[in-house]
Amino acid sequence: MSGSAFNAFKARVPIEWSPRLYITLVRGLPGTRRLHRRTLDAMRLRRCHRTVAHRNTPSLLGMLNQVKRLVVVETEAMFNSRKQQQEEHRALRPPIVVSHSPPPTTSSAADSAK
Length: 114
Description:
The chain is an alpha+beta fold. The protein has helices at about 35-40, 60-65, 75-90, 105-114; strands at about 20-25, 50-55, 70-75.
């Protein structure tokens, strides 16, 4: 599954317990069961590629278990490292300067060639 929406969320840091979970909807809602749509609505996930933060509670984990095929769950460290990587990717890079003029010849180089 090289073109999977889940590939952008691969862990870049060790996975540890976190008091906050960041949940991102990566699959579309059309064609899903009504129960799953209502569960996502209860988690405030209404559009694709939107991320919400929730406290790590047993009720939330039960809701995530219900819609695990539609969402990606990240801990705080995973979320922060992904955001940092995105910022580095979007950062301005120094411009590439290309000079098409011939290199200048000096008189000493011309004298040594004779």
